[in-house]
Design brief:
By secondary structure, the chain is of the alpha+beta class. The protein has two domains: about 220 residues, P-loop containing nucleotide triphosphate hydrolases (Rossmann fold); about 150 residues, OB fold (Dihydrolipoamide Acetyltransferase, E2P), CATH 2.40.50. Helix content is about 25%, strand content about 30%. The chain is built from nine helices and 20 strands. The strands form four sheets. It has a six-stranded mixed sheet with strand order 6-7-8-3-9-10, sandwiched between helices. Strands 13-12-11-14-20 form a five-stranded antiparallel sheet. Helix 2 crosses helix 3 and helix 3 packs across helix 4. The longest helix is centred in the middle third of the chain and has 18 residues. InterPro entries: AAA+_ATPase, ABC_transporter-like_ATP-bd, ABC_transporter-like_CS, ABC_transpr_MalK-like, ABC_transpr_MalK/UgpC-like, Mo/tungstate-bd_C_term_dom, NA-bd_OB-fold, P-loop_NTPase. Keywords: ATP-binding, Cell membrane, Membrane, Nucleotide-binding, Transport. It holds the Pfam family ABC_tran. GO terms for molecular function: ABC-type maltose transporter activity; ATP binding; ATP hydrolysis activity.
Length: about 400
């Protein structure tokens, strides 16, 4: 196993920078995920770690060794690509054994390595088949097995599940998590799929425009995003954003004016704000509660017009319009909750401790030191008690 250290990593194509001084530490044995939209630089950085792209500036260390100019074959890593890249004329066994045979390993050692990897990936019955006889998920297992037999110190995955259908992606996520637990090898995984990132990564690095916006555990990124980009990128539906203006502040809260004239309380370090500041209120769909219009207005509720309801079996998503707000407000409700009809009005309760506040620069404002376990429980009670006329 090996740690990975990135210090001031820069990538330029001619005079055009695409990676802007990335600093990141990946611990020995960690499962790190790079996530971000297309073109954000995550795959380019992975290829630089692999040695497939030159590093324009900065230092890359793999384990104790500076690896900037080490050839890819000598970096003791294995890479799994989006395309399976299997040899169609070879059997599964031959595909997995190919690199070991090229390295001149004895036949017995090759067979032992291939059979061990096949057992780990549960593809032992497939060893004599050819790629055309396999499903997409089986082919991806073979591609991973080809990497495992080399016993690398570092695994690199470049969107390996994007060619699979939805059910196979779920199955393969489980398999990859199990594989990491069994091997204990350092893994860096690139994806644009936030669900893959949240379910696989022990830590996640969120990329945007060739920079890392934030690094943290899935829980940290979801519940304490550092800015509007991270808050909006992670989560389905994405976090609700409501433009607002600060009316008054206290030590642990602020009163803000929302579009349409509604006033809401938000738990925030009031010392970071001034009256008249332009801010954005952010709140997750599952933290909101819908009620009959006008009900309990004192509970930080705002009036909205229901526009669309999505029934998803285990839950429903209600989209509503707040007067003067540019975006729809999404509320996630349990499936058994009575649903409002499109075109009717409802009250949306905003729990103060569940709301985040972002400044005019898009950065998250600090929250009070003691934040909202009591309010979180209260929010759950509100959601469970939601009623409609």
């Amino acid at each position: 196993m090996a740690s990975v250290s990135l210090q001031g990593i820069v990538k330029r194509y001619d005079a055009h920078p695409v990676i802007h001084g990335v600093d990141l530490e990946v611990a020995d044995g960690e499962f790190m995920v790079f996530v971000g939209p297309s073109g954000c630089g995550k795959s380019t950085l992975l290829r630089m770690i692999a040695g497939l792209e030159e590093i324009s500036a900065g230092q890359l260390r793999i384990g104790e060794r500076v690896a900037n100019h080490v050839p890819p074959a000598d970096r003791k890593l294995a890479m799994v690509f989006q395309s399976y890249a299997l040899y169609p004329h070879m059997t599964v066994y031959e595909n997995m054994a190919f690199a070991l045979k090229l390295a001149g390993q004895p036949a017995a050692a090759v067979r032992a390595a291939v059979e061990r990897a096949a057992d780990i990936l549960r593809i032992a019955p497939l060893l004599q088949r050819r790629p055309k006889e396999l499903s997409g998920g089986q082919r991806q297992r073979v591609a991973i097995g080809r990497a495992i037999v080399r016993t690398p110190e570092l695994f690199l995955f470049d969107e390996p599940l994007s060619n699979l259908d939805a059910s196979l992606r779920v199955q393969m996520r489980v398999e990859l998590s199990r594989l990491h637990r069994e091997l204990g090898t350092t893994m860096i995984y690139v994806t644009h799929d936030q669900v893959e990132a949240m379910t696989l990564g022990q830590r996640i690095a969120v990329f945007n425009g060739g920079r890392i916006e934030q690094v943290g555990t899935p829980h940290e990124l979801y519940n304490a995003p550092c800015n509007l980009f991270v808050a909006g990128f992670l989560g389905t539906p994405k976090m609700n954003f409501i433009p607002a203006e600060v009316l008054a502040t206290g030590a642990d809260h602020a009163s803000v004016l929302l579009p349409g004239g509604a006033i809401a309380e938000v738990a925030v370090d009031g010392a970071a704000l001034r009256r008249g500041d332009a801010v954005t209120v952010g709140v997750r769909a599952e933290h909101l509660a819908l009620r009959a219009p006008g009900a309990d207005a004192h509970d930080n509720a705002i009036e909205a017009l229901v526009g669309h309801v999505e029934y998803l079996g285990d839950q429903s998503i209600v989209y509503a319009t707040l007067t003067g707000a540019p975006d729809l407000i999404a509320t996630r409700l349990p499936a058994e909750t009575a649903m409002p009809r499109a075109g009717t009005r409802a009250s949306i309760a905003l729990p103060p401790a569940r709301c985040l506040l972002f400044g005019a620069d898009g950065r998250a404002l600090p929250r009070p030191a003691a934040s909202g376990a009591r309010e979180a429980a209260r929010t759950d009670d509100l959601a469970a008690a939601s009623q409609f006329m």
